[in-house]
């Protein structure tokens, strides 16, 4: 029987890892990989890149394992590591934004944007592509703030912890990002109409 | 783009499933971790430890200040200017330790 099966608690498993059971870290990865992939997927559409970023997240978590003091659940701490990896990734991408060819908007997304009919629905994938395109106009930090607030449903306190920004700054950024997103989506609608 | 429509967009995006990790993803991470140096507890330094670490520098700085003061004093004496010690004694004698002189 795998010894990991007997360890139900993250804290206990982490203690064993700290005491030298390095291989038990694979169990930590298995337990939390879905959550990490879900977070990173909010910021990167390419599945291969998401996997690279997820690996970077776990390696960074490994390096910083001694800093985890166990006061909050390990999942929360790991989510913060993943968010910071995503933020660094967005900053790198922003720097080379001119080299990236932007994806074209599909007809479904355009129809949905133009339509005032509430019955006109959009599938989740097209919606995510549309939002991703609009989000590229935001600063990396604004993007993380609005994604954590609106998509992940995080509290201001959680966003502060993940980004290092103050509560006031988070609220201001969220408000500003929403306004900018609306303007960008309106512009996308007009550009595609022309 | 009204507020309601933007909220609907967020709602739709929330429902998008994330990519599923490969079966051997954890094994890949473990291989990467094995290439990393072992996890060690950060060295917790008490104030006394930090002072001991700084001790050679503190001693050096204090010795430097003393040597500078002595050198300046010697230099002033050699130049015929009253030394620092004399100057201080004079000032204290004139101003600080003779309150009677301030009485009208």
Descriptive account of the structure:
The complex is a heterodimer of chains A (194) and B (104). Chain A has 194 residues and is mainly α. Chain A has 2 domains: 100 residues, Orthogonal Bundle (Rna Polymerase Sigma Factor, Chain: A); 92 residues, Arc Repressor Mutant, subunit A (Orthogonal Bundle). Chain A contains 9 helices and no strands. In chain A, helix 2 crosses helix 3. Chain A starts with 9 loop residues before the first helix and ends with a helix. With 104 residues, chain B is mostly helical. Chain B has one domain. Chain B is built from 4 helices and no strands. The model of chain B has no long low-confidence stretch (mean pLDDT 80).
* Mean pLDDT metric of chain B: 80
* Quaternary structure: heterodimer
Proper CATH architecture of the largest domain in chain A: Orthogonal Bundle
Q: What is the CATH class of the largest domain in chain A?
A: Mainly Alpha
Structural class of chain A: mainly alpha
Biggest sheet character of chain A: none
Helix content of chain B: 55-70%
Radius of gyration of chain B: 36 Å
Q: Give the CA-based shape of chain A.
A: elongated
- Strand percent estimate of chain A: under 5%
- The total beta strand count of chain B reads 0
**Low-confidence segments of chain A, ≥5 residues, pLDDT <50?**
1-6
| CATH T-level fold name of the largest domain in chain A | Rna Polymerase Sigma Factor, Chain: A
Topology pattern of chain B, helix = H, strand = E: HHHH
Topology:
The complex is a heterodimer of chains A (194) and B (104).
Chain A: H1 10-18, H2 25-41, H3 47-63, H4 74-95, H5 107-114, H6 124-135, H7 140-151, H8 156-163, H9 167-193
Chain B: H1 3-14, H2 25-34, H3 47-78, H4 84-96
């Amino acid at each position: 029987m795998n010894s990991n099966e007997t360890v139900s608690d993250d804290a206990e498993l982490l203690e064993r890892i700290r005491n030298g059971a390095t291989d038990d870290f694979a169990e930590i990865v298995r337990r939390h990989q879905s959550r990490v992939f879900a977070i990173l997927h909010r910021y990167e559409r390419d599945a291969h890149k998401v996997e690279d970023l997820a690996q970077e997240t776990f390696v960074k978590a490994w390096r910083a394992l001694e800093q985890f003091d166990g006061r909050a659940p390990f999942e929360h701490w790991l989510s913060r590591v993943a968010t910071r990896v995503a933020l660094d990734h967005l900053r790198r991408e922003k720097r080379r934004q001119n080299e990236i060819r932007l994806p074209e908007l599909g007809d479904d997304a355009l129809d949905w944007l133009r339509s005032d009919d509430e019955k006109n629905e959009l599938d989740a994938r097209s919606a995510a592509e549309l939002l991703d395109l609009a989000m590229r106009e935001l600063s990396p930090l604004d993007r993380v703030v609005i994604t954590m607030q609106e998509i992940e449903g995080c509290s201001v306190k959680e966003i502060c912890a993940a980004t290092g920004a103050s509560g006031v700054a988070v609220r201001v950024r969220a408000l500003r990002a929403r306004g900018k997103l609306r303007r960008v989506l309106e512009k996308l609608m007009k550009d595609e109409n022309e | 783009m009204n507020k309601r429509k933007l909220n609907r967009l967020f709602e739709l995006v929330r429902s998008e499933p994330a990519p599923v990790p490969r079966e051997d993803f954890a094994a890949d991470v473990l291989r990467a971790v094995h290439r990393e140096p072992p996890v060690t507890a950060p060295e917790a330094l008490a104030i006394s430890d930090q002072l001991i670490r700084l001790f050679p520098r503190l001693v050096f700085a204090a010795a430097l200040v003393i040597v500078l003061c002595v050198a300046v004093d010697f230099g002033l004496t050699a130049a015929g200017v009253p030394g620092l010690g004399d100057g201080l004694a004079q000032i204290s004698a004139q101003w600080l330790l003779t309150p009677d002189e301030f009485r009208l």
